[in-house]
Description:
The protein folds into 2 domains: 67-242, 3-Layer(aba) Sandwich (Protein Transport Mog1p, Chain A); 253-402, Protein Transport Mog1p, Chain A (3-Layer(aba) Sandwich). The chain contains 10 helices and 16 strands. It has helices at residues 67-77, 83-86, 103-110, 116-122, 152-166, 216-232, 272-276, 282-291, 319-336, 388-401; strands at 92-93, 98-100, 127-134, 141-148, 172-174, 182-188, 191-200, 203-212, 262-263, 268-270, 296-304, 307-315, 340-341, 352-357, 360-369, 372-381. Strands 1, 2, 3, 4, 5, 6, 7 and 8 form an 8-stranded antiparallel beta sheet that branches. Strands 9, 10, 11, 12, 13, 14, 15 and 16 form an 8-stranded antiparallel beta sheet that branches. Helix 3 crosses helix 4 (116-122). Residues 35-66, 234-260 are annotated as: Disordered.
Amino acid sequence: xxxxxxxxxxxxxxxxxxxxxxxxxxxxxxxxxxxxxxxxxxxxxxxxxxxxxxxxxxxxxxxxxxxxxxxxxxxxxxxxxxxxxxxxxxxxxxxxxxxxxxxxxxxxxxxxxxxxxxxxxxxxxxxxxxxxxxxxxxxxxxxxxxxxxxxxxxxxxxxxxxxxxxxxxxxxxxxxxxxxxxxxxxxxxxxxxxxxxxxxxxxxxxxxxxxxxxxxxxxxxxxxxxxxxxxxxxxxxxxxxxxxxxxxxxxxxxxxxxxxxxxxxxxxxxxxxxxxxxxxxxxxxxxxxxxxxxxxxxxxxxxxxxxxxxxxxxxxxxxxxxxxxxxxxxxxxxxxxxxxxxxxxxxxxxxxxxxxxxxxxxxxxxxxxxxxxxxxxxxxxxxxxxxxxxxxxxxxxxxxxxx
Length: 403
């Protein structure tokens, strides 16, 4: 699952540059054994540097992939463009998306040729976040990804090297007026496929976008018109401070239930904008949470055998705001997202819903107390009425927040 509320997933007809299909996302990046308690995945080894065509520069060494790089990726989520801002019809979540602290895994997911990871490492890759959305009507999709690198010059050189590396298979250099970066266009069969690589300070913004013939460059220009200002306002953490980023800034970790299995890299704290990158309907949820004084969010996601779990904890000023959001979320699940209500034996009055998810089923239940609201998800069930896991987890989460 890509996020706490990112349950809906749609197939996409377009392919990423290296042939990786944009597809419904039920997979995640492997994470820590316990949330924010141990090292994140090991970065892949870099290939031998190529001979630079420009004078060499001093690249600030990236911090070792640890909890700190995972936390920095969650910070980057807040300034990664929401695809729906530019393309409101691209509502379906897809893969790849989420945090990437391993340049090799990012390369495999976004580029697929084994050479992009070494390019990123050579220019001081720290971590990244990606978004993916598609249009359920026509299958066209858009990826946005933001990577943090050593310094502005390194980001600029990485952008050009990645573009040069991807300029195969019918891609040709192109220009988008007002866009300071490298752009590639592939046009055939009534379809435009565009890749854009845009440095903004230490950050590198990447987009992969499919569109109707003759529309791709203009649409990528609009996408980057949203992305670039977000990055211009962002202050990346100095490399030597990444390991000491706070793991629980809002004091929510101990109030969030540990679900079974191994935790994924989606686990951890998010601010409001970061949380919205996990949301099904970020615009309505932004309005709802902002109006009710949202003060913090913590996610724990895990996988065990054939099941996946997600626990989300939201914090508000008082029970009044908690109850308002509790009711509104239940209404969204029922009326807007197509959930089928069911009654949980252990907490009969809890709003609980099940959904079809491919060939399996997905359950979500809510519980609130005082200034905290929690949701618990169980994904991968063979039957919608299999409540054994939820009947254990939801009461345990309630007990953590009821004082």
